[in-house]
Automatic annotation (TrEMBL):
It comes from Parasulfuritortus cantonensis. Gene3D superfamilies: Cytochrome c-like domain. GO terms for molecular function: electron transfer activity; heme binding; metal ion binding. Residues 28-108 form the Cytochrome c domain. Residues 1-20 form the signal peptide. Pfam families: Cytochrom_C (PF00034). It comes from the Bacteria. This is C-type cytochrome. Transmembrane segments: none annotated. Keywords: Electron transport, Heme, Iron, Metal-binding, Signal, Transport.
Length: 108
């Protein structure tokens, strides 16, 4: 099965961890936003973006606000409270992925 996925490296990166967390019942492997959160964001922001410690809650916030913040991080724009921590993660996202991850988090 792994070998099958390596045909499409980007999808493999997006979907393999999502497979592992499917028992959580919430992650649809077909949702690229969900896969991104499980892959990239959860170690800091929590499995569904609920936030923990110094990592702010993302779940349930407006998709527009989240996407705007991510684009600001991506472009290097800094407003109050923005550290350098997020920039590499935002820069790794395409415009479409920003919209997908924001939509997923907003729906949590
Ligand atoms: C290495 C830890 C880390 C990872 C991984 C990470 N973040 Fe963050 N994120 C932070 C920290 C810390 C902040 C707090 C503000 C700051 O430091 O800029 C933050 C802030 C944010 C904010 C702004 C929230 C606010 O209220 O201002 C958004 C949106 C965000 N992260 C989205 C994401 C998304 C989406 C991902 C996954 C693609 C992600 N983050 C991955 C550490 C992380």
């Amino acid at each position: 099965m792994m070998r099958y996925y390596t045909l499409i490296p980007l999808l493999a990166i997006a979907f393999l961890p999502a497979c592992g967390s499917r028992d959580a019942g919430k992650v649809a492997a077909s949702d690229p936003g969900a896969a991104l959160v499980q892959n990239v964001c959860k170690d800091c922001h929590g499995p569904n973006g609920q936030g923990q410690g110094r990592f702010p809650r993302l779940a349930g916030r407006s998709a527009e606000e989240l996407a705007t913040l991510l684009r600001q991080y991506k472009s290097g724009h800094k407003s109050v409270n923005m550290s350098d921590t997020m920039r590499p993660f935002a820069q790794a996202l395409s415009d479409q992925q920003i919209d997908q991850v924001a939509a997923y988090l907003a729906a949590q």
